[in-house]
Amino acid sequence: MPPESSPVRSRSGPSVSAAPLVIDFDDNRLLAALCGEYDRHLARIEQQLSVTVAPRGNRLAIAGSPAAREAAAAVLHELYARLKRGQDLENGDIDGVIRMALSGVQGAAGKGGRKIVMAGDFPALITRKRPVTPRSANQGAYLKALETHELVFGLGPAGTGKTYLAVAMAVTMLLSGRADRIILSRPAVEAGERLGFLPGDMREKVDPYLRPLYDALYDMLPGDQVMKYLESGDIEVAPLAFMRGRTLANAFVILDEAQNTTPVQMKMLLTRLGENSRMVVTGDLSQVDLPLGMPSGLRDAVTLLEGVEGIAVVSFSEDDVVRHPLVTRVVRAYAQRDAGLALGAATPKERGKP
After folding, report:
1. Of 330, 317, 341, which Cα lies nearest the Cα of 99?
2. At 163, phi and psi to the nearest 5?
């Protein structure tokens, strides 16, 4: 419970039965923004946390199970704190805060319980456009790994924020002077298409493969600053083949779509790491576009290097997908199908059958 002098105060009834949890707010203008137009933000919280939230003047009364009330209170405190910092509330932000609260509630159901960890427990990444905060517990662990390790592997399906958060960390370190330059790279592997049929020279041919990295940059920095950094070389976006023979010192290096590297390519990049540099390698091992039978350099590297000092491996799941909710269901459906195919390919002994 926050101290009495805090602008946001919580108090519960005398027992943990049906007594609602009541939260007081000191700014009616921010409270209106917290509730949303026609209380749409409250409705979103009610639906996902199975609670009822009733506005009462400058208060919100939360009814539901004890664990759900606690989670809803944590969500409301977090969202109100964002409004106090001058941040707007979007549906994705609300869903992310709810997702983190739910992970705490589910953990609390186990032996010993677990503290509800919210985005406010992690430092926000400051970019020129807006602060970036984690929207799931795994994203929080990922940000912590990016802050404390020289080499981080981010594994998981599309939409989990692997590349986006890595670019946000890179921009934050560049703006703060902790890195002199950012190097963004991808292997130019053809996902069912042919580079030779694209117009232009080699650089123009591979630019479409690097477009997601540009998109992330433009989401962090004004367009004119992105162009300035690209022209000065402070930010470099290049295909993986251009990394051979270089030593990448005082840099923040990101290799995206790393599942499409070969073991030789992966070793080449990892050995480019120079003094005062950090490297992030991201990829989805369920979407390898290499020729049939060619091993993935990402899978090989994670198997070989996991547990090595200075290296962190963070794995995401479909529960961490922060795009449209339908994307989560699509990813889950494919994962279930692939798991079923793997089970069908197993021998009777491996399936546990006589």
Report:
1. 317
2. -75, -40
Rounded CA gap, 73 and 68, in Å?
9
Quickly list DSSP for 153-176. Answer: EEE--TTSSHHHHHHHHHHHHHHT
Whether 89 contacts 41, CB under 8 Å: yes
203 Cβ partners below 8 Å, 6+ apart? none
Long-range pairs of 92-95 with CB within 8 A, sequence gap ≥ 24: 92/135, 92/322, 93/135, 94/41, 94/44, 94/45, 95/44, 95/48, 95/135, 95/322, 95/325
Q: At residue 193, what is the residue type? A: E
* Token pair in block for residue 25: 């707010």
Kindly tell me the burial class for residue 300, based on how many C-beta atoms sit within 10 Å of its own C-beta (0-12, 13-18, 19 or more).
middle
CB atoms inside a 10 Å sphere around CB 41: 21
Q: What is the pTM of this model?
A: 0.73
Residue range 113-147, pLDDT digits in tens? 445 556 555 666 878 777 788 888 888 889 999 99
Cα–Cα separations (whole angstroms), residue 89 to 33, 37, 41, 43, 171: 8, 12, 9, 14, 23
